[in-house]
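Let's practice the habit of predicting before peeking. Look at the sequence and jot down your guess about where helices and strands might fall. Then scroll down.
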Amino acid sequence: MASLNVGNLGEYLREQRRTAQLSLRQLADAAGVSNPYLSQIERGLRKPSAEVLQQVAKALRISAETLYVRAGILDEREREELETRAVILADPSINERQKNVLLQIYDSFRKENGFESGSGDTDDESGLSADGTDADTAPKPSPPSN
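Done guessing? Here is the structure:
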């Protein structure tokens, strides 16, 4: 885990809050944290937990992953991977099996390019064999002849 850079996080939060035209008190209320605590985060005096960052992100209507990256909790590449996966999973125009196939292809390309997948195997959910074929329709090997 990277070290926390709370100064950068605080500046970013203040900028996002002002862009959203929220007072410190309004954001604190919306995020369910105290006004003094949020002020300390913005000034770089406190290190918020991932849960607090998630609540603040929700109140600001921004990506929690973006705040995790700013706080040093999440690597930029991990955030990009999570966002890519979320877009695939949220697409209403493809079915669950197709989503899982896309994720498997994505994982294989990442692995080929030297990146490990953060999601683990999706074979169990998709019904696909290790080679990407449908386990139910793939030809079964013939028994050995004697």
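How did you do? Helices lie at 6-19, 24-31, 35-42, 50-60, 64-71, 76-90, 96-112, 123-126.
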